[in-house]
Write a structure and sequence with these properties.
six-stranded mixed sheet, Nucleotidyltransferase, domain 5, single chain
Length: 232
């Protein structure tokens, strides 16, 4: 079973191909947020490098967010189009889950945070469990100050991960008993997407393309701006 993973939820976009033997090929780009222009050539590139035609792909996995609205739409629409054309199922994974999976061996309470723009963060909490990680509660959106307040009240040893942490690092450096993960782990990885999707595929936890929707924790910025102008 071969899985094509597509991740465009943040400013770093990428794709990967893998299966039971792990990740076979991967491409990532973190410059310019040109998701629409970069994604198709990246998929073509990894297929060529791995010598795997698209027709051999069994499942399309996509990052469902939360994240950048335009990037999410590009990745999910591309995944749905490919899945429909190939007649194969899809799997969706949350971006915050992908960040936590990359540091799943840490015994600390894992806190993932993605820069949501407008001085806000998307964030979630995780614990290590046998075989991976478990999310504690729902995805949230709030200000960095609100998250720092929550973390400062915690008695746990903490591991903070994500570009949202690094953007507001001066604030998070004040949190007691908190370690900030390396900047190289700041973005969801298409390799993690393939790995998590493969585990779900073995359990046959598939979705039809029409069933998958992005995780939006707030209105798109364009809609917020329109509402603000209307009220003004």
């Amino acid at each position: 079973m071969l899985i094509l993973g597509i991740d465009t939820a943040t400013s770093q976009s990428g794709c990967a191909i893998g299966g039971h033997e792990g990740v076979i090929a991967m491409a990532q780009c973190a410059k310019g947020r040109r998701h629409a222009e970069n994604l198709a050539p990246s998929i073509e590139f990894i297929c060529h490098q791995a010598q795997i035609p698209l027709g051999e792909i069994s499942v399309i996995a996509v990052d469902l967010g939360p994240g950048l609205f335009t990037g999410l739409r590009v990745g999910i629409a591309t995944g749905k189009g490919l899945a429909h054309a190939l007649g194969i199922p899809m799997i969706g994974v949350a971006s915050l889950d992908l960040l936590a999976f990359a540091v799943r061996f840490s015994p600390r309470l894992i806190v993932t945070a993605i820069d949501a723009r407008r001085s806000e963060l998307y964030y979630a909490f995780y614990r290590q469990v046998p075989g991976g990680i478990q999310r504690l509660g729902e995805h949230s959106v709030g200000t960095p100050e609100e998250l720092v307040s929550q973390l400062s009240a915690s008695r746990d040893e903490l591991l903070l991960v994500g570009d949202g942490i690094h953007r507001y690092r001066e604030l998070f450096d004040t949190v007691p008993k908190a370690e900030i993960a390396d900047a190289g782990l700041s973005y969801p990885s298409p390799a993690s997407l393939v790995q998590l999707a493969h585990a779900q595929a073995l359990r046959e936890e598939f979705h039809q393309p029409a069933e998958l929707e992005p995780i939006y924790l707030r209105k798109p910025d364009a809609e917020i701006n329109w509402i603000s102008r209307a009220r003004g």
